[in-house]
Amino acid sequence: MTTSNIIVLCAFAFYMLVMIGIGAFYSRKTKNNEDYFLGGRGLGAWTAAISAEASDMSGWLLMGLPGAFYLTGSGDIWIAIGLLIGTILNWVFVSKRLRRYTIKAGNSLTIPSFFENRFRDKGALKIVSAIIIAVFFAVYTASAFSSGAKLFATLFGTDENYSQVYFIGLIIAAVVILVYTLLGGFRAVCTTDLIQGMLMLVAIMSVPIIAYAIVSGNGGFDANLAKNGISDIGSFVNPMTVGGEPISWTGIVSGLGWGLGYFGMPHILVRFMAVKSEKEIKKSGSIAIIWVTLAFIASFFIGIIGRAFLTSELNDTTSETVLIRMIQQIFTGNGFFIFIGGIFLCGILAAIMSTADSQLLVTASAISEDMYKGVINKKASEKSALVLGRIAVAVIAVIAFVIALDPKSSIMGLVSDAWAGFGAAFGPVVLLALFWKRSNWQGALAGMISGALTVIAWDYIPFVSGQTIGAATGLYSLAVGFPVALVVMIIVSLITKAPDNEIVKEFEQVKNVEA
User: Fold this and answer.
1) How crowded is residue 471: how many other Cβ atoms within 10 Å of its Cβ?
2) Which domains does the chain have, with CATH numbers?
3) What is the three-class DSSP state of 502?
4) Measured between alpha carbons, how far is 211 from 282 in angstroms, rounded to an integer?
5) I need a surface site. Which of 196, 201, 209, 210 has the fewest CB within 10 A?
């Protein structure tokens, strides 16, 4: 191992020990399920905002999305635009009402328990929700683990031993995330997310600025793009083209459709529930929107400038390492610069860890609080439910580890599948639960199942000449699954029994606070 690698490894070790230390600190303050899963509803504005966005923006923001821009140019910017719109709408319309409604509806600690309490269901919604969370979060967490493994393999591996180093990196990423999530619960996760979110932003904003300055003094941006295989520069930077070809309407709709996912993301919605007051939510929303806007702009420029900056061209497999290689190429020379580069690389590690920990925690809450204590054994003690929750964290981490074992797995592909699943299954249910008083549990259940099944059928079953419908049409499954679930929930709610007066009265009470 080279001296440079040892210095970077020291930076990583220091960072990981700090994260584990935070988990150990908060483990002493975790006394019950509300502490472990919602932090006692005591999040401040900055922690809630940065934690929500950091838990959202996993390795795909710093690796998957820049890799797409690097390969095909500006055409994938429609994904970032869709996600930005979704973020804004989620904070403006959903956050405050969800927090208020979850308190009013039986002090719900999780999204599945909110569904049950909101619709006065007897367990079906909890069970189906918990299953959907376990399935799709296993895939989502796998994308984070894969990001961590690719980071280690790119930094410390060679062409000959890449797979072996990838496996070692996968173990390290999984173990560290697992340890501090098990120890401290929600407050530990949110505190580490705050630190990691700020580190992520510094890293992704600084690197493209420095790289552009270097490129400008070394022949100019256009000349270096041409040198690195981009013959038609206008097409590369044009958001209406992808890989030199005009973007299709399905490409634009699919990109914008990513924004629909926000309404159904449990690990983001739970942050709204945990803010200590509604006054803090407005402040949190402003912070979050600014953070995510800067993050998307930086992610775009990493991919575009990286294509001009890097001296060696990346391919479909290695394009997701563009930021890692830019940092390596910028921070060379003496030990101090290499260590600073190591801290910047920790920003990528931060993106990975801040999402995986949140997903593991939400999965644990769904299995222990919703499935076990809520349906299977309603007399279970807080202690036994907490133990089961921690076991669930470990089990899902193992499943995610297995999914991520393939070094060639696409980070963006894994995230895309999970994002669509949650957005279609939960998004319409959340929105109609909050804003339509005629919705009922039968409609919610039908919408949830139809959304999840549409995504699975669209992405995984080869209906069209050996291809999936998604591959054949180029249309993102979320852009289909979300409206399908929305329509199904409305129809089923209208043809089944209307909600009881008690449910309608509760809805009106929540609504009238805002009037």
Assistant:
1) 13
2) 3-514 (1.20.1730.10)
3) helix
4) 36
5) 209
